[in-house]
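Can you give me the bound-state structure? Components:
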Amino acid sequence: MSTSAPKVKKESKNKIKVEFDRTPLKERLKAKFLNTFFFQSVVVKIFRFIFLLGIAYVVLYPFFTKIAGSFMSPEDFVDVTVRLIPKNFTLDTYKAIWTDLKYLEALSNTLLISLVCALLQTFTCCVIAYGLAKYKFKGNGLIFLLVMLTMIVPHRTLQASISLNFTYFDIMGIFSFLSGGASVGIEGIDSILSSIHILKYPGGINLINTYWPLIIFSITGLAFKNGLYIFMLRQFFRGIPDSLEESAYIDGSGDFRTFIQIILPMSVPMMITVFLFAFCWQWTDSFYTGMFFTNPNKAPLVLSQIVGIPRSLDTDYAGQNMYEAAIKNTCGIMIILPLVILYTFLQRYLVEGIERSGLTAE
Amino acid sequence: MTNEIKLENQIGNKKTPKKRKIASLDKRKARVGWLFVLPFLIGFAFVYLPIVGESFWLAFNQLTIVKGGGYNLNFVGFENFVYAFNTDANFTQTLITGIGELIFQVPAILLFSLFMAVLLNQKMAGRAAFRAIFFLPVVLATGIMESIEASNILGSYMGESSGIDDGSGGSAASSIVSAIDIEQLFSNMKVGQELVTYVVGIINDIYGIVNRSGVQMLIFLAGLQSISPAIYEACKIDGATGWETFWKITFPMISPMILVNAVYTIIDSFTTETNTVMTYISTVASKTNGEVISTAMSWIYFLIVVLILLAVAGIMSMYVFYQRKD
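Here's the bound-state model for the whole set.
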């Protein structure tokens, strides 16, 4: 370090050029790169990158095999030399699924169901979560516990009674009462009761094979994993400062107007996250659609039900087992293809929406 | 203005001061709050409760579908439960192995997702791409895809030859490492055989674990983002290493998220349709008179899950660190 002040070479309005003894480039590079800290960070970076690459491979591998298998013809499954790259490239599998399994019909039905359900679920969960997050009333905690409870009890446990309940759907016996199906065991009253014929559903309404069960679940926040959405949104709404709403109230806005005009627009990223979850999980769902759409003649065909072997591809060739597995996997590809497209556009919301939510456990 | 002042004076005269006014606002707020949660309440009372009640009732009954429509129930008491435990040869066995598996899987998922979240939170090349890949299973590997994957022979077929990509002859679908390799690794560390089998199990099930830790990773990432960078900066200035920073700052600050994720993971992996117990229950459901017996079985299972959940949540919440908010 030199004690004398650096010599000024040239001075202009906002630039100044100074002359001083600079360490030679070689020395500087040495100091920068030839130390343990730098080596350590490089090693860590390389190790981290390889590790992430490995895990990414594990995640993507099933998709690779699916895609590879979808282009193979039956002969390729007998050929030992063929592994990931097909020898006899064919599009027959895709064609057969497209025509034989009514892909388009299933696609449009699934799109409709997923869109409606996801929109309803997003909105309902927002409303419920906002109520739980911003209003203090007796039973607030209890209701949140109930929300969690609906997530803990597996719907598989309730499968039998869910399907029974929607086959003979009735709200507290009201439909049955209005159609004369109710009885209390006393003859006089029973005869009066059975003369009511406002509706025509003495045993309740059969909602199986219609969209209604899914809509009812969605609109009441009981559908698949809605507890998780409500939890996420509740944490998000809690992070919004109360003063925002208070200023809206002072400006004369009511509770619901504040919610719709102030709160909802500012929570769009979080809502997109929830929507993406709801949409994708409804799209690939096979449990609910399998339970509610039992009759293929009456019920809408959905994507999760098309998994099967198209008739034109039916074969008893040597590699039959493999070939059928490949066909099923191709069905899988066809099912998730629209989701992959959606995911590439919206995936940043998935992370950012949650990341910026200020999601913290209390 | 003047009117209001007068009004206040009148109220003041009647000796009912501000208190009532505040109470009424609170009440109004409470009412609006109820209005907001009303959709859930209606659904819970009129749709969910009857379903749960009926399901519970079904477990104590015998079901016969009447031809004209409708069904009959015969009350049989605890017969279905007794059947599940005594007559059904496989149920108890499945229950024990299934729950044992899950108890081992849940910590693995938690550890893995925390580790990955910390990694993905660092700044590096290709972070966005890695994130996109790791969250892919969250949206894609569910429902029907999971059931296709469960009985999939394609992956193992494609990977069984040694020539594709890795020299070890393994693949993602078949076993990646053998117990012997790990044993050699651990032999100098004097750890028990149980730990070795556990680690081998985890590594071989890495696909399943990666698949099921997507949501947890997201929640952890959100938690990591909410830690103030100022704390890390202060740490760095004080000369703390990355290891120390993780255990002294990140870990305590993220501990509430660990609790949340533990609860979520338990719920998620216990209720997923592809786990051992659930698969067994659904095979029982398809047999004759299986509906009620499977319902009874799932209620037994549910009770055990709730007990485990309560125990885990209770123990963990004692050690959770909460940052005080001012």
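A couple of observations. Confidence is low (pLDDT under 50) at residues 160-174 of chain B. Chain B touches chain A through 104 residues (CB under 8 Å).
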